[in-house]
Design a protein that fits this description.
The protein has 7 helices and no strands. It is mainly α. The longest helix is centred in the middle third of the chain and has 19 residues.
Length: about 140
C-alpha cells in the first residue's frame, strides 16, 4: 500500500498529526447531533480509521474502510484489557486506533506502532496541549 500523502517521519510529527486528527474528530460532533447521534469524546477512536484514510489521501472506498476499521477495532479490543487503563484517556485511545489503522494498511509495522504509542503515552500532556492549541485557531 502506498499512501498518497506521506506518513510523518518523526515522533514529534506523529504527535502533531494525531492532534490534528483528534481535532478533526472533534469537528464532527455538531454533525453527529444533526443526525441524532450522541458522539462524545470517548467515542472519537471510532473515527480514527476514516481520518487515517483522509490524512493519507486514500479513497474512502468500502474496501479501504473495512480494512482500516477492522484493524483499528480488532487491535483495540485485543489491547483494551492489557493497557493499564490507558484507553480511559480519549487522546490515547484515538492515537492507538489511528496508528492501528496505519498498521492495517501496511503503512506501519507493529514495532513502529509500539514506538510511536510509547512516545504518545510519554508525551500525553504535550498531545493535550497541541489539541488545545488547535482548538484556539
Amino acid at each position: 500500500m502506498k499512501a498518497r500523502i506521506p506518513i510523518p517521519n518523526t515522533l514529534q510529527n506523529w504527535l502533531e498529526e494525531i492532534a490534528a486528527g483528534y481535532k478533526e474528530a472533534q469537528e464532527t460532533v455538531p454533525f453527529a447531533k444533526l443526525v441524532g447521534s450522541n458522539m462524545v469524546e470517548k467515542d472519537f477512536f471510532h473515527l480514527a480509521p476514516l481520518i487515517c484514510l483522509k490524512f493519507r489521501g486514500l479513497p474512502c472506498t468500502k474496501k479501504f474502510r473495512e480494512k482500516v476499521i477492522e484493524a483499528a477495532l480488532t487491535s483495540y479490543v485485543a489491547t483494551e484489557n492489557n493497557n493499564n487503563g490507558a484507553f480511559s484517556n480519549p487522546h490515547i485511545s484515538f492515537a492507538f486506533a489511528y496508528l492501528a489503522s496505519h498498521y492495517g494498511l501496511d503503512l506501519l509495522t507493529e514495532s513502529a506502532v509500539n514506538k510511536i504509542m510509547n512516545y504518545i503515552e510519554q508525551e500525553q500532556k504535550q498531545l493535550a496541549a497541541k489539541i488545545i492549541e488547535l482548538d484556539s485557531r
